[in-house]
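Entry 14. Structure prediction run on the chain below.
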Amino acid sequence: MIDKAGLQVADNLADFIETQALPGTGIDPAAFWRGAADIFARFAPRNAQLLATRDDLQARIDAWHQARAGQPIDAGEYQAFLRDIGYLVPEPAPFEVTSANVDPEIATTAGPQLVVPVLNARFLLNAANARWGSLYDALYGTDAIPGAPTGNGYDPARGAQVIAWAKAFLDRAAPLASGSWAELTSEPTLADPSQLVARNGDNLLLRHNGLHIELVIDRAHPIGSSDSIGLADVILEAALSTIVDLEDSLAAVDADDKVAAYANWLGLMKGDLTASFDKRGRTLTRALEEDRHYTATDGTPFTLPGRSVLMVRNVGHLMTTPAIRLPDGAEAPEGIMDGIVTSLIALHDLRGNGRFSNSRTGSVYIVKPKMHGPDEAAFTNDLFDAIEDLLALDRHTLKVGVMDEERRTSANLAACIHAVRHRVMFINTGFLDRTGDEMHTAMRAGAMLRKGDMKNADWIKSYEARNVAIGLACGLDGKAQIGKGMWAAPDRMADMLEQKVGHVQTGANTAWVPSPTAAVLHATHYHGVDAFARRQDVAPANAASLDALLSIPLANGRNWSAQEIRDELDNNAQGILGYVVRWIDQGVGCSKVPDIHDIGLMEDRATLRISSQHMANWLLHGVTTAQEIDAAFERMAAKVDAQNAGDLLYQPMAGNPDSLAYQAARALVFEGLEQPNGYTEPLLHAWRLKAKARALESV
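Output returned:
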């Protein structure tokens, strides 16, 4: 560690900031560290007080439920209690946000959004480049249409299916003046000629619902040569924005991890990030895509960005980091460090230091997760003010995305938005974390529904509707994104095409998808439904009542069979082990993890929070026993071992008392009641640090 203005900073972090992040920003290193030290001095105590408030509210809620054990919950009495303790705050007077200089990809266009772990450079580049993608490729290699390719080479029958689907899509998104795209034999005449906005050689660029479609016309191409108009591919504008994630999707527990994360964010902001990898014996190198150049219909040059607009998700208020220690020796709040360093790095984009421009309006987009209520949102707003002053930025250059994923935030959403009303650029429902917080907040109210039944609980329907209605009432339309959550099954694209259109129908102008391929397919939903037009049908009444939102998903005396209880325990235990073993042993924070039915699901800490809290709840209320939970873990350890048999880095858990991953998984359940707000990070970080120390000892 090295002293920097009274802060003790890890050597590699200090070196990164002074030799990589600061040069080109015009900020003197000594002035930077003095300013950073001042921010920590001002905000670390306030951060700690907010966390103490969380604990105090939880203790009061626990006591309230314990005093009424076995009694029905009266909604009026319950809400009066929550207001009395400050959990619910008064609604602000009607207002509209004043966010300015928000890029159109966020404020005025509707399309898919990716979330990608910052530590994986290849995935980062894939996501950033997912602004454009081939519809033909997305259809050909997935289950989006029935069947699958046969043989080792190109399958003409599968290709014919793909082309038929794509041309039917064009009939809907860009109808012809007469006939269909499948029958077309010459240059198309569109029913609405204004949809043709530009050309690139023979290629045609169309626009529909704010999104672009590029028709690749190439009669020399193997596909185009057999097509009646030479159509070789249909390229869709897909992931308009991407969240570069320092939070739920990665395992970053020390200075080494944080420096690697910050270095990748810097590579994106400078535009020089690359990733090399082996593919069938060849070394390939990936980099950021160039912009796309066309000639508009009036003959003038026409350029579109080649990449998603990038946001960065900082960590929340809970965790501290050993990468910086405060003058009293305590670890620094990690969220404050993230805010300072990621904003500093984004200066390179604002100063035009890189190959490309991320924000063309001069904003920095920071998504802030896991805030509990308006006081914590106000803390973030004040912190961003201070960071702007440190970096000599105009006020509200730093925009904030509010993850509406905690119960106290969703119940006070208008007040939370009001606290950041001058810089908010995003609100997003987070069903998974919201479910975990639902269970932990009401942990002592009684046994919860089975996990699979949560999606049909009254609170979730109210939550999804209120998020859009409140966002619109606060004036987010045209100024910020209103988003929806993740499609978690990356191999089930047919199901996604059938179901995820529901997110667009709510009036949300973005929703999360798990891959660039999924982004292309989800983009077709925004052509099928005009998200902004749907907002006219969103009733303000959807935001009126808290009764449904605060209804607790209790089982209310359901008498499950022994087999039903065993099945639920196995499902939870398998999900916990399958995720935790990669987190602890390999430092993988998000990946496609086979579920108990061997279906690959994208798992992160939010899904882990649900499973661990659910088992802790059933144990607390006597639905199950500690012995039954341990038996489930033992059974599922063997299953997870078998599911990972092909992974050379995998360390088996079954029958292995030394497995740190197995011990961590058990701790998440048996210590689940004591975890702050049911979060998994404290235990995961502690066990991951033990695993890293063990690995060093064995070298």
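The longest strand covers residues 211-217.
Filed with the rest of this week's runs.
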